[in-house]
Amino acid sequence: MPMQITKAVFPVAGMGTRFLPATKANPKEMLPVVDKPLIQYAVDEAISAGITQLIFVTSSSKRAIEDHFDKNYEMESELERRGKQDLLDILKGILPEGVSCVYVRQPVALGLGHAVLCARPVVGNEPFAVILADDLINGNSKPCLGQMMDVYKELHASVLGIERIDPGMTQRYGIIKTDGGNNRVFNVNGIIEKPHPDVAPSDLAVVGRYLLRPEIFGFLEKTERGAGGEIQLTDAIAMLLKEQAVVAYEFDGKRFDCGDKLGYLKATVEYALNHAELGDAFREYLKSKIGDLGNAE
Ligand code: G1P
User: Cα–Cα 20 to 30 A to 34, which of 208, 229, 262, 269?
Assistant: First the structure.
């Protein structure tokens, strides 16, 4: 089995109903945070962590994602004709050389576990990454997936990206059970999908980053419908950890839940403040706005 993780699965078949009407004809993963679609932040993070094959698990309404990562000859030749090299560079930088895309269809919306299983023929018998583009993560020391890769290289065990959450919010996440750990790495000895706060084993929630060993596929095949009537990745991980070590890694950085309107707005504000071209002007604007807000009723 290859030691290096070079494949990443992006489950992008979901309908994105929380953002209707914006997501009626556009995939939610194409919503921009400032000037880049969410899916491209996820792809950039994967590539920076050494991923060279991007596997998108899509559905019929997601063609815009394929177009985004494909060459657009018409636009490129027009920009060339106009001498717009800077814009051409932006287009060409979307998918660097040596990185390829594969698209697999998830014919029915049976959940995250099912989506990952759909990628099995492309992943094969290799460890791989799963990235949920809804969770936009601004890593501090380095991007989140790169931090997790360092843990994988040391332990060769599946790694789940986690974050400490408000204990009242456990019903939104997969929650791990642990007997402790150190240096941000926790042994996982249980995991449960969206538990009620009264029964949640901890306040450590899985965010949309996973490094998984290929044995997960055998368990996904056996996984029955769980929370929400869906085939949950969490339930397959619960079986996997009975057979081999699974660790959780509390990443160093800040996560924005862009599957939620407020989280998406927060991400937009923070990324705009840090934007090379817009940051200063946007900061000035916000400052003036804060004055207005102070006067509001
Ligand atoms: C999925 C997973 C959940 C995880 C979450 C992270 O849930 O099933 O375990 O904590 O992503 O964003 P979803 O947000 O798709 O309901």
Answer: 208
CATH of 7-259 given 3.40.50.10310, 3.90.1210.10, 3.90.550.10, 3.30.565.10: 3.90.550.10
CA of 172 to the centre of ligand 1 (A): 7
What's the gap in Å between 256 CA and the centre of ligand 1? 13
- Ligand 1 atom with the smallest distance to the CA of 207 is 6
Q: How far apart are CA 10 and CA 130, in angstroms?
A: 6
Return the domain boundaries, the chain.
7-259, 260-297
Q: What's the rounded mean pLDDT across residues 10-24?
A: 91
Q: What predicted TM-score, i.e. pTM, was given to this entire model?
A: 0.95
Atom number, ligand 1, closest to the C-alpha of residue 174 = 9
SS3 266: helix
Which amino acid, 278?
L
**Amino acid at site 81:** R
